[in-house]
Structure formats: structure tokens, C-alpha cells
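Give me C-alpha cells for this 400-residue protein.
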Amino acid sequence: MFLRIKGVDMKIVLRLLILSMFLLNISACKDEQKQVVQGLPTVEAIKVYSQDVPLNLEYSARTQGSKETDVRARVGGILLKRNYVEGTRVNEGDVLFEIDPEPYKVILAQAQAKLAQIQAQLTAAESQWKRISKLFDERIVSEKSRDEAKANLEALEASLKLAQAEVDSAQLNLDYTSVTAPIAGITNMETVSEGSLIAVNNQLTKITQLDPIYVNFSASENELFKLASMVEKGLIVNTGAINDGDSAMRRKLSAKLRYNNGQLYSEDGEIDFVNPAIDETTGTLKLRATFPNPDKKLIPGQFVRLSLDSIVRKNAILIPQEAVMQVAKGAFVYRLNTQNMVENVTVETGTQTADGKWIIDEGLKDGDVIITNGLMKVRPGIPVQAMIKDINLTKEPSKE
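Here you go.
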């Protein structure tokens, strides 16, 4: 039996109370669910895809003349004259210095006189040999006389050869009094001034060939090992290969140069030499590039930056540098699964691109979602609220 209080039906009141409690429970559940969603860590993430990526391999390098030759005196004497302007270009065979030739002219004249004397003696010996031989055949002279005439002839023939060699040597030394350029190039300052007494093998100056010019650099053993491994797997394409035209039809890597101020050198070069052995001290391999230098804008001893930007890494997965975390055992990233749960994934990093992104060699695949921001707020196994950017399709960030 329900009581009525001042005209109010208590049964109706009770039903209203029950309904109110039910509605309050539903509201509390919704608030609790909202609080749970709002309590999830918010992170930024990207969806990655494989793509062909140019590798910008850059090295510190130093220039060197393609030929650097010391100009030395091959005979001694007084240096009479310098025939070039220091720092200018000379051609191969140009006379650079003149050494006093007079002593060598005298020596040459003496050798020539001795040669003429022996030639006269040899002529007489040849006539004597003809007479003695004929008389010996007629049994007029003894065998001893014949042998003596023959020995005299042979001795004079040998003396003639020696005298001729002395003449050639004297002529050569006289020619050496004119010191010529062994190569074409730019001359340095003279090291001995005119009027000085110089000795054999004294350095007089140096000539450097600037066109082409060499650029020497070193690459680490680990980097070269990674490149070799990628080549073996077919992951490297050389888009800037140069055919050098030899019988083996080899293809060389093209290279570019930048000055220390960042300005790009106008001419492209090529890698033409790789040292066959690793330097045990530094663990690096020495390489050399050759660049055209027609305007002499590069000089020996100059520090430059050499880059190999014609190498393309096929099917590479790129992620920002900040997404990769390094530990003692290697590198790892945080990946989101289909339920937006955080996973710890070990990766193998390769080389870096020019803008600082890592190329991931192993550990990730197309479509993986990688956390790039908010890494300190998450740990493996927890759900997150992610702002995902599809870097392949350049979609706007979307909430999940």
C-alpha cells in the first residue's frame, strides 16, 4: 500500500528516484570513459614507406697538384740567368735557368780532340793490319807479327768507342747547363739566386701542374663496408657514373666539390684511384678524385668538401633522427600497432641523408607507424593517442 502525502502518490516518487539514480550512473560511466581517453599520452607519429633516396656522402678533402716536380741542376757551376717569372705558367721544355757553359765547352773540345786522335790511330792500324795479313798469307811475316797487328787494331777500336762515349757525356753536360722545364705547370719561387755557385742536384725551383688537379680524401672502414654490403644486395645505384672509355669499360663515380664557405665548385670530377689497403693507424681508406681546373680556381693544399651525391639507395625507409634512440645494444624506435599500442622495435641504421634523416636498413617495413615526438611520455605496451602523418602521401595529420 502506498501512502499519499498531501496529494502526492509515493509510488510515483519512488519510480522517479530509481530513474534518477540510473541516469546518474550512466553519466558517471561516460565521465569515467572520457577521463580514461583524456588520460592517454598524446604523441606525434609518421607512417613510413620505402623510396629511392640519393645518398649525400661528404668528406673533408685537400687539393694536390696532379704533377709536382722539383727542377734540379744536373751539373754544377755558376748560375748565370733565370728566364722565367716566378709564379707564372711554363711549358714543357722551356729553358728556366742557364748555368755557365764555358767549362763544359772546354771539356767537350778535349773529348772531341781525343776522339779525333784515336780515329787517326785506328785508320793507321787498319792499314797495318791489311799489310800484315797479306804478308802472313805469303809466309813473309811470322804469326806473332800478325797477332800483334790484330790486337793493336782491336784495342784502338775499343778506345774509339770510349772516346766517343766521353764526347757524348761532355755534350750532355753542356746541354744540361740549360735547365729546362720537365713538365708544364706553374712555377714556384726560385731557391737559388743568379750568380750563386750551385752543385749537382741542387733544387732550383718547383713546377706544379694545376689542370687537372687532384683531391685526396679518406673514408672510414665501417662506411665502406656498409656501402659494399648494399652494393652486394643490389640496393645501390650509381646515377652519375662516368664511362672512362677503356677496354674494360669501367664506370667511375662522379664527385662534386664545395669550398669551405659552402660555395659549389663549377666543375664535376671523378674518383680515379682507391688505395688497395686500409691504413692500420686510422682505419680509413685513401681515395683520390680528379677535377678539371682550367681557371686555376683550385690551388694545391686547399681544404675543401668533396661529396658523392650520385649514389641512390633503392627502397630505403627514412625516419627522422629524433625518432631513433641509441642504447648499448644498438638502436631502437617506438612503433604503434593496429591498436595504437606502443612496441619497442630494434632497428639497424644505415647512412644519413643530407637533411639528417636516418636510413633504416633492417627492422621496419612499409606502412609502419613510428613515434617521432613525445617519446619520453611512453613505454612499450601502453596505448597512446597519436597524431599520425603519412609522409609518403603527404596527408594532413589525423587523430586516432
